[in-house]
Design a protein that fits this description.
about 30% helix; 2 helices; five-stranded mixed beta sheet; alpha+beta; about 140 residues
Length: about 140
């Protein structure tokens, strides 16, 4: 069993990480999960949250707003809708994300599609919880 696996994190704006990791905590849509070397092959969607990478060089954290993660035994690739290193996140960033989520929620309510309204409400709640979690 290898001690590390290849980890790649990309968003439409940029590539944020490409390194060997010993564990990656993922905010999965169906719950948090930790991927480690030799993990069973999995594809999952992401919910807004903190993605935490443990590597031989240290730990790094990224705020992600959604996307997908593909895990296999020796690699993990994350394609994030938006991703920002936690140490770069400001209250302004978070306020913008919350405003976007609030606008999506209002638009969904106007259209009257209950499933979309529920999903938008969940997104808004997740974004607001991120601020509390990050003490912003």
């Amino acid at each position: 069993m290898a001690n590390t696996m290849q980890f790649d994190l990309v968003s439409p704006e940029r590539s944020l990480a490409s390194l060997q990791a010993s564990a990656v905590q993922i905010p999965g849509a169906d719950g948090d999960m930790t991927a480690m070397p030799d993990h069973a092959p999995t594809i999952t969607t992401l919910r807004p949250g903190i993605l935490k990478v443990e590597a031989p060089e240290g730990t790094s954290e990224y705020l992600v707003t959604g996307g997908f993660a593909q895990i296999n035994g020796d690699a993990l690739s994350v394609l994030a809708e938006k991703a920002i290193p936690v140490d770069e996140v400001t209250r302004t960033h978070l306020d913008e994300l919350i405003a976007e989520a609030r606008a999506l929620h209002e638009a969904a309510k106007e259209n009257g599609e209950q499933t979309i309204v529920d999903e938008a409400a969940k997104l808004l709640a997740d974004m607001e919880a991120l601020g509390t979690h990050m003490s912003l």
